[in-house]
What we know:
With 154 residues, the protein is mainly alpha-helical. The protein has two domains: 2-90, no CATH class; 95-153. Helix content is 54%, strand content 9%. The protein has six helices and four strands. It has helices at 10-21, 39-46, 70-84, 95-108, 115-128, 134-153, and strands spanning 2-4, 26-29, 52-55, 88-90. α4 crosses α6 (134-153). The longest helix is centred in the last third of the chain and has 20 residues, at 134-153. It starts with a strand and ends with a helix.
Amino acid sequence: MLYGDRGTGKSSTIKAILNEYYDQGLRIIEIPKKYLMDFTDIIRTLEGRKQKFSDRAGLSSSNPDEEIHAADTIQEKLSLADRFGIKVTFSSPDKCKFLQIVDGIAQKRGLKVDEEYLHQEALKWELFYNGRSPRTAKQFIDWLEGSLNFSDKI
């Protein structure tokens, strides 16, 4: 079971695992919260199939309709997770790690920006756009790169 803060790589991890093991029969079924009561029936339906299936944690859903009552499902999810045996937590990085992520993405993109300016702008960005996460760092660098390219053309 994967759970944690939004934008920290849960979905990307699942997609990477699926891509890696797809040819060996791995399949993923996403079960919206409102159908969790049917989990046992779903498992019975899938028993005996040659494909392998994984559960995707829904507590991090970006769809507010699915997770309005997320706190009400924590115990249900933890009970379900006990059946899987492995739990991986994805937590938001602290300030230092967030800035390391920003630096790494900027470096990979070959952006030549003063580090102090880069960090100041990244910290402003995270305040206004979803907090500290690898996704937020990437979105910031996307914006910065676009801004730099635009100003170069003027």
